[in-house]
Specification:
It is a single chain. The protein has two domains: 76 residues, no CATH class; 76 residues, no CATH class. The chain contains five helices and five strands. It has a three-stranded antiparallel beta sheet with strand order 1-2-3. Strands 4-5 form a two-stranded parallel ribbon.
Length: 199
């Protein structure tokens, strides 16, 4: 390989790794992810979902660009909005990493994402009888979005959810792997442990 050819390759690499080029790529990715966030927030019926959403990488948050200026996630209302926005942010990032074959583990673990709609004091063996119809629909939409997102990139992405709610839909029931009720637990009572330690 000639010196001239090496110089051309070095110049191309320097341009690809320039601060400007990296920022352009990052802006492009954030724009694509913002479109997904906006679509999914609308699908979940989240507050401010009629506006364009974006990831604010430097502050690790989601921002809605409203007519009255930017609204960061911390000012987006109640717990159900916060859960919804965290959920769509994680799904968007994990789906992107999977689609681009990035070296990020291909699974997401969520513990009781429905808790704001379905607190443990309303848990009657998973039945959602004590939950309002609007809350039942919100929980169903949340799980439908998770399953939809996974299906778009399977088998490269897995979402593991531990949940109290037991939604009576074919889609939800088909995704259940194990029910930990009636004495059956994730960590069994007789699980071996070292003497003198807490479980």
């Amino acid at each position: 390989m000639s010196k001239e050819s090496l110089r051309e390759q070095l110049s191309a690499l320097e341009e690809d790794l320039s601060v400007e080029r990296i920022q352009e790529r990052l802006d492009s990715i954030i724009s694509i992810l913002g479109q997904r966030l906006t679509q999914w927030a609308s699908q979940l019926g989240l507050e401010h979902s009629k506006y364009s959403l974006r990831l604010e990488i430097n502050k690790l948050t989601i921002v809605a660009d409203t007519d009255n200026g930017p609204v960061p996630m911390e000012r987006m209302g109640s717990g159900d909005n916060w859960v919804g926005y965290h959920l769509i942010a994680h799904l968007a990032l994990h789906q992107w990493f999977t689609q681009k074959n990035r070296q990020v583990p291909g699974f997401l673990f969520l513990d009781q994402p429905s808790q704001v709609y379905f607190p443990s004091e309303k848990d009657s063996n998973g039945s959602m009888e004590l939950v309002t119809e609007n809350d039942r629909l919100a929980v169903s939409r949340m799980f439908e979005l998770v399953l939809q997102t996974i299906s778009e990139v399977e088998p490269g992405m897995q979402v593991i959810i531990t949940e109290h709610a037991d939604i009576d839909t074919e889609l939800y029931q088909g995704a259940i792997v194990e029910r930990w009720r009636g004495g059956l637990k994730l960590v069994p009572e007789d699980w071996p442990y070292k003497e003198g330690t807490d479980i």
